[in-house]
Each structure stands twice: as C-alpha cells, then as structure tokens.
Amino acid sequence: MQHRTKGKAVTSPAPTQIALINGSFEQPAVSGNALLPDASQLQNPQHVPGWLTTATDHLIEIWHDGFNGVPSADGAQFAELNAYQVSTLYQDLPTTPGTKLYWRLYHRGRLGQDTMALDIGAPGTVVQQRQFTDSNTAWGFYTGTYTVPPGQATTRFAFRSVSAAGGDPTVGNFLDGIFFGTAPSVTLTKYAIPDGPLEVGDVITYRIAAKNRGGGNAEALRLTDAIPAGTTYLPGSLRIVNGPNTGVKTDQSGDDQAYFDPAGNQVVFSLGNGATSTQGGSLPNTDTLPDGTTVEYRVTIDEASAGGQVANTATATYENRLGPTPETLTATSNEADTQVLPAADLSVTKSADTTTVTVGQTVTYRITVRNAGPNTATGVTVTDPLPAGLTFVSATPSAGSYNPVTGQWSVGTLAVGASATLTLRAKATTTGPVTNTATAHANEIDLRPGNNTDTVTVCVKPAPICRPCPSPSGSGGPCEPCPPPAIDPA
C-alpha cells in the first residue's frame, strides 16, 4: 500500500522478508574441496555463513565446481551433506504465522543413489516434508511450499541424511541452489525533482527506485511509466542510476535496457541482472542488493499544466518463479505530485487618433490589454508614462485606475479572454517626434512576453503663424488669412 506526499514518495512496509543465507554455498570460496566450520564457529574466519550442522565436530564439506568431475548445479560451489558424520544441515529463520514460504533445491548422489529428507517446522519438532533419492549422474531439482502454522515464530529448514551408496557415513548427498523463503515483493518509490512549485517550461526529473523486499529474486522485471498529462518527454534523458546495467540509455527500442515509446507516450525499462533490450532481468532481494535499482527520466512542463499539478505513478511487472509455474506480479509506485504555478499571456495594443499634431493640440491614445490565458491574470498593471513633450490632460480606464504621476495603469484582474482599455489624452508641448510606450505586467509568469509592449510615435509640428493685416494708414502688405484657431476639447 502506498501513500503520497508533495513531490515525495512514501511506501508502507512490505511483508516480512525471509530467505536463507548462502543458499548456494558460495562462501567461503574453496579451490577444490574443504571441511569448514559451521556458522556457530564465528571465531573462525573460514566458517560457512548461515548453515549449522548437528555433527559434533561442527564441520561442513564444501566442493568447488568440477572437483572430482562433479559439476555444481548453481554458482561455483556446493555442499556434501555427509562430511565426517551422518548429520543434519539446517538454518533457523524468524517467521510470521500464516506466511507462505517457497522452497527449492538441487540434490545428487555421490557414489550412486543417495537419499535425504527435508524437514521443516519449529526447532525440536520438525516434520518431514519429503525424501529425495538421486543418482550420481545428474542433479535432481525439486520445489515446494510451506505455510507457517499458528504460533510458530521460528522455523527450521533442515536436510537430514537418510542413506548413501557405499555405506560410508562420510560420503553422500550433494546439495546446491537451495532456497527457502518468501516470494519476491517489489516496491516502487517515485520522486519528482525538484519538489516545486514549478513553472511552465521547467523540467521535472522523475526517479523511480525499485527494491525487492521479498525473499526470492524478482524475475523478468520490467518498469513502465506513462509520461504524465501536461508534460512532454525530454529526449535523451533515460538513465539507470544504480543497480545492474547502470548508465545512460538511448530512446530507441532494441538498443539497450530502456526506450521511449512514442506511440504509447511512455518509457520502458528492463531491470535486474541479465536484463536485455527485450527482456527484464532478475532483481535480488535487499539482503543481496540493499539499494535495489533506480531509474530516471525527464519531462518538460507544458502550457496545459499551468495553474494545476502534474501527477504520475509508475508500474512494474515481474515473475515469481519459485513455484512449478511462473506467477506474474505487479507493483505500483506512490503518486508523485508537482504543483505548477499559474501562467498568463498578456498582450498590449496601443494606438493614437492621429500621427501628426501641432504644438498645443491634444493627442488621444487608446491602450488595450488582453489576457489570452491559460489562467486568470492577477495584479495586472500597464506602465504608460508620458514622455517629454506631452502634458497629461485626462485618463479614462474601462477598469482600474491611472496614476498620471507614475504613468501606471492598475488594471487588477483579467479573466482568460478578457480585455481592458485606457483612453489617455495629452497635449503636445514641444516639436519633434514623441514616442510613447505601454508595457503590461501581471503576478503570473507570462508565456509570451514579446507581445507585452506596444509603441506609438506622434509627430509634433510647430503651431501655424499668420502675417498681420495692414494698418488703417495703408502701410504693410496684403492681409493673409489666418487659419481658424484650434479648439482644445479639454
């Protein structure tokens, strides 16, 4: 069961992990064969981890692959149940009543047909589960299950010698590839980096940690993660951060252990030891691989996510192959959430009622600000200070207020698709070109700031001059009519 927190992953505890130690007798390493002390003899650095024996000398016999012509069944080493004495080889494991445990093993005779028994139960009251008889020509492979009965907090898993060809108590019953424990249990923990809140255009790095908190290996492990809605996959960002097959991966299917699937808009990773471009590998439990394996990819936040959140979960499929037939299992990560800040797209359009005036005349500007979204724009202002050569006459905003001292029009809030207009009047006072610029701002990030500004230039010419009429005495030239005076609407 998973829970979610803002941008982080929280996974509830997995079932109790139960697995044998050193099930294939790989430790300590030997070159031919050796009689070594069992796990009770901790003072001896050459003791065999995990395994105990009922032999009074506490010795376990380990063989290397190929010694005396006998190949190992799993790994490079195996054990002989009969060392110097007819005995029982066992491990005691903490268990939870009701837990289903799986077992599997390889058995082989040494000189001929050897027989051993598998005993499981509480220490002192074990119950024989089965006997195995195999010749010295091939390894026999066996599987089974055991359910821990009520009240049994410790379970003994033991191999007891029954008989050996030749009658020599120091010879017989090879063992290898032993497993006794819980099924694999993969947990996925997903992280979104950074936590946020983020903006449109920012990049989110997703990391998914896969850990096997069960007993057996998780086989054929494949992780799939759909690219979350409102984001776009960032090409070339696939990577296995730790665990088997670490490194950068290509986007192309068939190249390596990961790819981006454009048709399904998802990323796919094949994970674990032995993973290929087409098949998942084997992920050991956290006793063997404490950190599991972690993958990573990146997405860019799209405009559609503005003012909302990006949510995403990953899934994995794997197989439990401890039983006679593979069992397909599924793991789902926590939901990684990233808050995305609102965004807007303000645009400004500015015009003048005329592009040429004379000194003393009034020019009328109209400034329109519009919000194209995708979110409501708040705290909208338009800065439109009058330049030198113009004197403020009046301002009429359709929304908000205009301050002639600062030249700032405080619009307020603009919903998606809404607009507001300011009619601004000013008197021309000096000749020459007069350029006037309006620029819009809002609290939200602007997706297209290039259209936030507009400029208008008005040409101011000198006021017209007329020659005076002749005096009554008749001096002076002819009278040249003056143009009618300009009427100032202010």
Automatic annotation (TrEMBL):
| One protein family per Pfam | DUF11
| Positions of the DUF11 domain | 345-458
Q: Name one GO biological process term.
A: carbohydrate metabolic process
Region (Disordered) residue ranges read 471-490
Compositional bias, Pro residues, is annotated for 480-490
Query: Which Gene3D superfamilies does the entry link to?
Result: 2.60.40.740, Galactose-binding domain-like (2.60.120.260), Immunoglobulins (2.60.40.10)
Q: Which SUPFAM superfamilies match?
A: Bacterial adhesins
Among InterPro entries, the record links this protein to:
Adhesion_dom_sf, Chlamydia_OmcB, DUF11_rpt, Fim_isopep_form_D2_dom, Ig-like_fold, OmcB-like_DUF11
Source taxon at top rank: Bacteria
| Protein name as annotated | DUF11 domain-containing protein
- UniProt organism field: Streptomyces benahoarensis
Lineage, uppermost ranks: Bacteria, Bacillati, Actinomycetota, Actinomycetes, Kitasatosporales
